[in-house]
Amino acid sequence: MNAPSTTTAASGTACWSCGKAAGGAHFCSACGKILPLPAGADYFAFFGMPRKLQLDSEALERRFHQLSWKLHPDNFVRAVEFERNLSLERSSELNDAYRTLREPVARVEYLLGLAGLRKEGAAKQQAPPELLEEVFELNESLDELRQASAAGAGADLASLRDRLAAAQKNFQQKLDEVDAELAVVFGAWDAALDAGAPEAARRELLARMNEILNRRSYIRNLVATVQSELAEA
Description:
Oligomer: single chain
Mean pLDDT: 85
Distance between the termini: 69 Å
């Protein structure tokens, strides 16, 4: 009998090997064979976790190591080709899932992507209204730094470097504040899931997180730009 493709096997609930109800998330509870992920499964489901944002990092790491050992291709060298391919696919998926979920920002970006809300582009490049004046002053200072550096104006260069170092510190503080704001919304999201909040309330929280991430991305880019300019001056 030909083995099913990973795509068709993933779309049903029966084990591809024994035909019984698969039961387990990664291995058939009846025969123990490795299973494809069900259609529509995500990284959270891969680890058997709800779509929450305040994850237990130690529990996630333990689960990763457990699955890494169980799904490793070395365990399937004598298996049929279908199983060997499944092991390779699942091991790769496991690594991708772990890299994404272990980092808070990557985790929320992934969640927003699942909801179809994480669309990076022009929006994240727009300066937040409350920062317009500071960004304008920063860009002026950066232009002056480039000009002074090109002219070899030592005294002006030192003064501008000090001014930009202070600006970098200021924007780094703002970045820390944004991260703290994001952590608060993480808690609100998890609480909404626990309370079974209506979809409208959850969509509102997702939209708020997306706005915060756009703001964070802009400020992070400012910090990186100033750091790079100071290193080259």
